[in-house]
Amino acid sequence: MPEGDRLIYWDADVFLSYVNGMTDRLAHLDAFLEKSGKDIQIITSTISIVEVAFGKAEIDGKVLDKETEEKISRLWGTNSPIKLVEVFPEIGNGARGLMRYGLTQGWKLKPMDAIHLSTALNQRVVEFHTYNSHDFQKWIPEVGFKICEPISDTPKLPL
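Above: the chain sequence. Below: its structure as tokens.
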């Protein structure tokens, strides 16, 4: 990644919004994806591959759709603008530490969310994008990076 690029982490719910074609979010997500690898780099944990298994229409209809599967697969393919980060012991230990710290504060942190936060912390991101930012706001002092919804300064207008 060239010096000066912003390292941004995407939680699995951001990818699900993209896969589900949520019209109120797509302009911003497309803008970030277009910039990734240029002036920003989007990263996520490999656990996102598991969490982004179905589109909403597939779940609702209980029928798998080839087009949705292809869209999901493109997110992790070789030409993807997304960089995947493997879960390794340091990230696992960090996730456990966050969960243990949360316990002392009276906060609950699901294991997958702990892995996402720990991965972002390990990779030294400047922003953590999620549509559940209200659930994560209390963690900002502990992790030291901005947690927010993905809002682009230059949303991509639909054609």
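Strands lie at 6-10, 40-45, 82-85, 127-129, 146-148.
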